[in-house]
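in:
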């Protein structure tokens, strides 16, 4: 099935693997929270046990260096796409309020981006991630 929209995550590859996996979870949670009709129905197995729903469409994860993630961020902002960010400072915080304060303390142009997630029209998202490789 081909979707008119796309979910993409871009992660800096110089970050530890466990941190990259953690970032994906945090980053896509914002998309799930703010995007209507992106979550499918509950799952149910053959025994009748129910499970939580998931995104209705794939999430593509890309890896990049610092320059590539900054470029993707700038292209996403220019295209006014829904965007979540994870900065280096968030690795040192311990709760949601501290996370928001850490981001608020840094101007957009100097955010130390470790990961971003974006959602929007497929063609716009494709333009943002153009040239990046899928995460290996």
């Amino acid at each position: 099935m081909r979707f008119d929209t796309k979910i993409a995550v871009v992660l800096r590859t110089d970050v530890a693997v466990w941190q990259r996996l953690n970032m994906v979870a945090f980053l896509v949670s914002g998309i799930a929270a703010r995007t209507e009709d992106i979550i499918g129905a509950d799952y149910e197995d053959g025994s009748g046990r129910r499970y939580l729903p998931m995104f209705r469409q794939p999430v593509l994860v890309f890896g990049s260096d610092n320059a590539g993630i900054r470029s993707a961020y700038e292209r996403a902002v220019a295209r006014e796409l829904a965007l979540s960010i994870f900065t280096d400072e968030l690795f040192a915080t311990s709760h949601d309020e501290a996370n928001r304060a850490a981001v608020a303390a840094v101007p957009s142009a100097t955010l130390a981006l470790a990961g971003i997630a974006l959602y929007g029209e497929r063609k716009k998202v494709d333009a943002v991630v153009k040239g990046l490789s899928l995460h290996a």
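note: Strands lie at 5-12, 43-44, 50-51, 59-64, 82-87, 113-121, 133-134.
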